[in-house]
Amino acid sequence: MNIDWNDLPYFLAVANEGNLARAAAHLGVNHSTVFRRINGMEERLAARLFDRLPDGYALTPAGAEVLPLARRADEAVQA
After folding, report:
1. DSSP labels for 9-72?
2. DSSP annotation of 6
3. d(Cα 25, Cα 14) in Å, to the nearest integer?
């Protein structure tokens, strides 16, 4: 798995918040930054992590596989 660890906060924010605007507000960045980081992460992993829905973002099966790994990495960094 080719994960850029710097993308994990963006991935987790979108997974937790459900849309780019709330994720961006949580991170204190512009929504376009979140969009760019998620797209880059998906390109590097060659997998779509989120379904783009009219009312927000929902994890795909691939995103659901990445989520526990991302949470463990985040917990390790916070500890």
Report:
1. HHHHHHHHHSSHHHHHHHHTS-HHHHHHHHHHHHHHHTS--EEEETTEEEE-HHHHHHHHHHHH
2. G
3. 11
Q: What is the pTM of this model?
A: 0.92
Phi, psi of 4 (to 5 degrees): -85, 115
- Estimate the crossing angle of helix 31-45 against helix 20-27, to 10 degrees: 110
15, with CB counted inside 10 A (0-12, 13-18, 19+), is: buried
Per-residue pLDDT of the chain (79 residues; tens, 9 = 90+): 677 889 999 999 999 999 999 999 999 999 999 999 999 999 999 999 999 999 999 999 999 999 999 999 989 988 8
